[in-house]
Design brief:
Blueprint (H helix, E strand, L loop, with lengths): L1 E4 L13 H6 L10 E4 L16 H4 L5 E8 L5 E3 L3 H10 L20 E5 L4 E7 L2 H9 L5 H10 L4 H9 L5 H11 L8 H13 L5 H6 L1 E6 L4 E4 L5 E13 L5 E4 L7 H7 L17 E3 L8 E8 L3 E4 L4 E13 L6 E3 L4 E4 L4 E14 L2
Antiparallel strand pairs: 1-16, 2-3, 3-9, 4-10, 5-8, 5-9, 6-7, 6-9, 11-12, 12-17, 13-17, 14-15, 14-16, 14-17
Helix pairs in contact: 4-5, 5-7
Length: 368
């Protein structure tokens, strides 16, 4: 049985008034539209045609959460815990109310995630850049006090972790302001795109220490169909664009900047994986079906491009099909075709094969 899923966009301040509207072919919205959740997470379960929500069917057991994400402004710099860290953190916060704004751990799960670009350009920060490359970037900021202090911390005994701890300590504001000021005139052929991106972040978050933390991170530009996987512990922030996001079913977030929300620096540092390195870009395949390999078994995501010929795909239930372009139908074992409007999804609790047809694009989510 196939069930239609929809949901109202969440109106986070960083959301876009046009990206989701353009995707769905409707006028721009009056308020920001940031995320549409297709899942059974208690915070915002997807809606069924009969007035129920998806958790009434699944019992809240889905291991993944599928989303449309539309960013006009940068999201917070954040990191997610491992399962062990989440369980320990939730135990330590047992005395806090579920809606306490100082609560870091909403559940006892990890939150690795995969984002695939739907817009022609999607910008993100992901992971920490190798220190030698970051030192070349800092050189472009000149010899002022702030850049000099940042260089000293990056080359100190505690390296990247120590630099981040210093920047977020509340004691580095003069250096932060100096570095942000130096960004205005900085020039580097190697880091031209990165400097431009961080200037934009600074304009939207004046004086925020997270702007300088962003300088330490890999700047990633995805084209449509490209994706990145972000494991637990990896510092990241999405800057702009429209994408399909899938993650383990969790709402555990430790924030480090670019947000008015709760920031817990010691807790963030305790879960942070400060190992530097690039985040590989996962590129679309030439054929009809693209798989995006991930390192977890909570979820798997495939992109299906349709040119009129039916495409039969083996699936592991419970599965979802999210339409993102064109005209898409989905059929199960009974061969009855169900139309899926762009921006909405179908849920299957028991089908082993789904046949997609039409012309356009859809994503299939399932356990890994």
């Amino acid at each position: 049985m196939l069930l239609s899923l929809s949901n109202a966009p969440r109106d986070y301040a960083w959301g876009s008034t046009t990206l989701l509207a353009d995707l769905e072919g409707r006028p721009a919205s009056a308020a920001p539209e940031a995320e549409v959740w297709f899942g059974d997470h208690a915070s915002d379960p997807a809606e069924l045609d009969d007035g129920r929500t998806l958790d009434a069917v699944t019992g809240g057991s889905l291991p993944y959460l599928l989303k449309l994400l539309a960013a006009a402004d940068p999201l917070s710099i954040q990191v997610h815990p491992t399962i062990a860290q989440a369980r320990d953190g939730r135990r330590r916060e047992a005395s806090l109310a579920a809606d306490d704004p100082h609560r870091n751990y909403r559940d006892d799960n990890h939150k690795p995630e995969l984002i695939v670009a739907l817009s022609e350009r999607f910008e993100a920060l992901g992971g920490l850049r190798p220190v030698d490359a970051t030192l070349r970037l800092v050189e472009a900021l000149g010899d002022g006090r702030g850049p000099a202090e940042l260089r000293a911390h990056l080359t100190g005994a505690d390296g990247l972790r120590g630099a981040i701890a210093w920047l977020l300590s509340g004691r580095a504001q003069d250096a932060v302001d100096d570095v942000i000021g130096a960004l205005e005139t900085a020039s580097s052929a190697e880091f031209e795109d990165t400097i431009h991106a961080i200037r934009t972040v600074a304009e939207r978050n004046p004086g925020d220490p997270g702007v300088v933390v962003a300088l330490l991170m890999n700047h990633i530009v995805l084209r449509r169909g490209e994706g990145i996987f972000l494991r637990a512990g990896l510092l990241h922030a999405y800057l702009s664009g429209l994408g399909v996001e899938i993650m383990a079913a969790s709402d555990n977030v430790l924030r480090g900047g670019l947000t008015p929300k709760h920031i817990d620096v010691p807790e963030l540092l305790s879960v942070l994986d400060a190992t530097p390195g690039n985040v590989p870009v996962l590129r679309p395949a030439d054929g009809a079906v693209t798989e995006y390999p991930v390192e977890v078994d909570d979820f798997a995501l495939r992109r299906v491009t349709l040119d009129g010929a039916p495409v039969a795909v083996d699936v592991t239930p419970p599965a979802m099909v999210l339409a993102t372009a064109g005209s898409v139908t989905v059929a199960g074992a009974d061969a009855v075709a169900h139309a899926v409007a762009v921006g909405s999804a179908l849920f299957s609790a028991d089908e082993a094969v789904l046949t997609l047809a039409g012309t356009g694009e859809a994503f299939i989510a399932q356990p890994g």
